[in-house]
Amino acid sequence: VQLQASGGGLVQPGGSLRLSCTASGFTLASKTIGWFRQAPGKDHEGLSCLNHRDGSTYYPPSVKGRVTISRDNAWNTMYLQMNSLKPEDTGDYYCNTYPPRPNYWGQGTQVTVSS
Is pLDDT of 40 > 90? Predict the structure, then answer.
């Protein structure tokens, strides 16, 4: 299994980014999936999840209303649309199942929110 996130970068506060995650070795639509953020010196923080059974989503208060998780089954790719970004959103972003599987952590993408 390989999960590779991309789409990060440097953005000003209030800006937007769309992260992508391509999967190989398993079908994203077969599992509940999520996005995670790891700030420097901290553990992975769950930012969103998409339930594969009923399509329901969950967002913690820290990002609710500012991010949207989605999935494209044809491309076996998941996305995280992030708006109204804040400096505290800075970190490395990863995709995984939800809850995360330790051996599924792949390459993350770095997001820096700064003026």
Answer: no
CB of 92 within 8 A of CB of 109? yes
Query: How far does Cα 57 stand from its chain's mean position?
Result: 13
DSSP 23-65: EESS-GGGS-EEEEEE-TTS-EEEEEEE-TTT--EE--TTTTT
Residue 34 CA to residue 30 CA, distance in Å, equals 13
Total number of residues shown for the chain: 115
Q: Which of 6, 57, 15, 14 is nearest to 47 (CA)?
A: 57
The Cα–Cα gap between 75 and 1 comes to 16
Distances (CA, A) of 100 to 9, 10, 44: 24, 26, 10
DSSP code at position 100: P
pLDDT digits (tens, 9 = 90+) for 71-111: 999 999 999 999 999 999 999 999 999 999 999 999 999 99
Q: Which is nearest to 107 in space by CA: 5, 28, 1, 34? A: 5
